[in-house]
Each structure stands twice: as C-alpha cells, then as structure tokens.
Amino acid sequence: MPTNLIPGNAVIGQAGGPTAVINQSLVGVVQGLLEARAGIDPATGRPSSGSAPGQPSPIKKILGMRHGVRGLVNADFYDFTSTNPEHLERLARTPSAALGSTRDKPDAAYCQRIFEACKKHDIRYFFYIGGNDSSDTCRLVNETARSTNYELRCFHIPKTVDNDLMENDHCPGFPSAARFVAMACMADFMDNISLPGIKINVVMGRHAGFLTAASALARRADRLDPSTDGPQLIYLPEVPFDMDRFVADVEHWYAKKGRCHIAVSEGIQDKDHNPIAAKLFEGETDAHGNVQLSGSGALGDALADFLKKKLTPAGGKPPRVRADTFGYIQRCFPDPSPVDAREARAAGREAARLALSGDLDGSIAIQRTSPIEPGALYAAALKRVDLSAIAAKTRVMPPEFIEGHSNVSRRFLDYCRPLVGELPPFERL
User: Fold this and answer.
1) What is the residue range of 188's domain?
2) Are 199 and 112 contained in the same domain?
3) pLDDT tens, 86-96?
4) How far apart are alpha carbons 219 and 229 in whole angstroms?
5) Residue 408 CB partners (closer than 8 Å, separation 6+)
6) Rounded Cα–Cα distance for residues 5 and 7 (Å)
C-alpha cells in the first residue's frame, strides 16, 4: 500500500434502479477496504473487524450513505467498519439496494453541499454504485473537489439492468435481469400456446434494447427462427417503430399460427426518435428529465387496444389480446445469474483496490476477453477507465446484434447466453 495516501473516511453509496446484485458490489467495496485493514486503531494496532493485524490503513471508517448522496449531505450513515463478515455475506445475496437508492442529480449548489459534507465528515474516499447518471454524479463530485484542491478519491462501480454504459461489454445487474426476462418469456410463451391469442410483454430499456433482446433466449434450444417458439416479434428502441408495420407483423403471425407472442421495449420510438410511450400518454419525469416508463402499463394497454381495433373484422369478434408490463420486478428478482453475482462483487473489490493503490478516480469496466462465438469459454477482465468516458453517455445495441426490424441476431444470442446462466429445458408435445 502506498505510504502517501491521505488519512480519512470512506463513503459508499448506491443510486438509480436497484438490481439483484447491487449489494454484491457494495460488499465487494467493504470487503476490499476491510482486508486492507481499514478501521485499525493507529494507537493500538487492533483491527476492528477481524482483519489481520498490521500497518493501519489510511481509512478510519467505512460509511454507507443512505439513499446515495442525499445521505451524505444529511449525515445519514451506516457504519460498516466493524460489520460481521457473515452479515456481509447475507447482505451480498440480498436483492435491491441495502442502503437505499436515489435519483437525485446534483447541480452546482448540490455539489457544493456534498463537498461541504465531505469536509465535515473527513471523507477522502468516495465510492458510488450506479449507472449513467450516477457516474455523472461521481464525475461532478470529483471535479468539485479538484477545483478546491481537496483530495478526494472518487470511484464509480457500474450497475444497470439496461446494459447501456460505455466501455463495458456488459454491466452488473443486466445478466440477472436478462435471465428473468428469458425465463419469464419461456413460461409466458407456454401459456400463450395453451390459450392462444396475442400477447405483448413490455420490457425495460429506455434507449438500449439489450434486456428486451434477451427474450429471444426463451426460444427452445436458443433457436433464432421464431416460427417454432416465441417471442415471434421483438421490438427494440434502436429500430424505428411503425404502428402500421406492427399491425402487419402481428397479423402475419396470427394468421399463420393462430397466436402471436411479442416482446416490446418500453423505449421504442418512431423514425424521428420520439418515444412511442410519450406519444400515447403523459408520464412523470425524474430529476434527470427521464419520463418514467416502467411504473405504468399504459404502453402495453395502448398497443393492445390498437391491435384489437385494427385486427377486428367488420362485424366480427376482436382477437384475444393481452399485455403485461414486466416493470420493476425485472430488476431485483432473487434468482441472480452466477456470472453477474461474481462480477458485481469483483467490481466493488477492484474499486477498493484502485483507491488504495494510489489512483485518484475512475470507473470500473467489465471487458470480455473471450470471443463471442458458439461454445466459446466465457472470460472477462476488469479495467479502470476515465469517468468522462462513462458519465452521461449511453451505449445502444450494435447493428450486428439486430436482425431486421423485429428480431435479434445469432451473434446477440452468443453474446448473451453465457451471461444469464443455464436455463430450464422446457419441452413441448
């Protein structure tokens, strides 16, 4: 450990939408700091949480910010310094954000309050677990500290089910949510063939279609051909959505199979990049200006009503059309991907290691080191990247992951399959 690290306390926060593995990252940071002897009393040399005696760490306390930076400015902390290791392990396996989350977007005045709180509580190590907006918060806090020559080491740990962070092959939280979507669509498709009709499932994904695309894993034996298993139609934000074409697509499959199974991203947009949901209903916006899409079933209901009207023959009976919005349940379902749990913990540990190795700031990125091809043994590595490379930027599905206007490619399946873990082998008569 470098000898020039400034003494002080560490804070850890969680922000944005919770996930099934965000607490793995929290515990990873805490464990990394404790194993580096954080909290050892310099006067006695005694460790405070069972870590081996030795040279004291510059970190005196490990504090969890309740509800992100809001907890920092309100001095609402949880002290992890002497936490029982067994408690940490149980916490790591618990879904959702244990510290509570926030969608606060700090402006200049808010950043000044954060900075004053850091000085008041002797905070010198700042860890923030979250997505695009959270990485931008980390960047703003870092720049505020630098502008006043206050030494503050700021590290962002990635988290987002949308899988839309730049520099990352994938983000902690996405594999587990993708696993949920795949399994939910597997079961829902079996329901659809039992009682045939038109079924629409609305999946999270404001600008990036990764999570909706994961529905393709529901097809038996990961088949790309949708003629056997659903969903037959997959609509992503990256591909312009046309209502008349949508009707024609559904009409084709309904005429052919007597049923149609559909996955739609909540963020689908028209050719002019106007969100379809915003055109159909007025939703609330958060502090970042984002229309809240996942708290309402309005998009699914509107699409279902539109299909009923368009597909009802003159004087005839409307088809059976139903819609479900997977909503928030996708984020924290307690059946995480093993890869996801492992990598989320590792990302937290890596942030702690970088902070104590002399790095001043950065974001932890997951980068795949194995080829994306059938049967390839999956491998990935963690890499520090600049906060500016992540903050307030959005990654979308690359063209090679998309096929046509309502399907995904074989390459996407090869990309996603090793992340979600083994899926149940359903059979049909």
Assistant:
1) 174-334+397-420
2) no
3) 999 999 999 99
4) 5
5) 213, 216, 224, 234, 236, 401, 402
6) 6
CA-closest candidate to residue 306, choices 231, 259, 244: 244
Bridge partners of 408, per DSSP, are 402
CATH number at 303 reads: 3.40.50.460
Place of tokens 């709180």: 117
Token duo for residue 370: 């194995």
Name the residue among 131, 192, 184, 155 with its Cα closest to residue 11: 155
Is 168 part of a structural domain of the chain? no
Buried b or exposed e, range 34-64, using 16+ CB within 10 angstroms: bbbbbbbeeeeeebbbebeeeebbbbbbbbb
Mean pLDDT value across residues 77-105: 95
pTM of the full predicted structure? 0.92
By DSSP bridging, strand 8-14 and strand 59-65 are parallel
Same domain for 293 and 373?
no
Residues that are catalytic: 162
DSSP for residue 47: -
Element (H, E) at 65: strand 59-65
Total domains present in the chain = 2
- Map residue 374 onto helix, strand or coil: coil
